[in-house]
Design goal:
mainly beta
Length: 119
């Protein structure tokens, strides 16, 4: 059974970077069938796709986040990481990692981790 678990700092100051990690068990992030994704949900708003990476480690980003986002992976630890730079209070959200198939369908989600941007 595939499981994803997000971890991160919880509280971040404005203008600072935030780094979140998604630890994967039950599957390998080098599995060529899937994409490994980051999605967030700000309070009172819908889901926002941030980006993903494929089994080779190539990353793809939403245009809304591309300029200040980096997604990377560590195959030896079977996890992938989101770094979001220069955060503002508008980046306050629950951040999820998820596995997506080749057609973009999400089939497994982590439980989410709250990130609050506040001084």
């Amino acid at each position: 059974q595939v499981q994803l678990r997000e971890s991160g700092p919880g509280l971040v100051k404005p203008s600072q970077p935030v780094s979140l990690t998604c630890s994967v068990s039950g599957d390998s992030i080098t599995h060529d069938k899937y994409y490994w994704s980051w999605i967030r949900q700000p309070p009172g708003k819908g889901l926002e796709w941030i980006g993903n990476l494929d089994y080779t480690g190539i990353s793809y980003y939403s245009l809304s986040f591309k300029s200040r986002t980096s997604i990377s992976s560590d195959a030896s630890k079977n996890h992938f990481t989101l770094q979001l730079n220069a955060v503002t209070p508008e980046d306050t959200a629950v951040y999820y990692c998820a596995r997506a198939g080749s057609l973009g369908e999400f089939d497994t989600w982590g439980q989410g981790t709250q990130v609050t941007v506040s001084s």
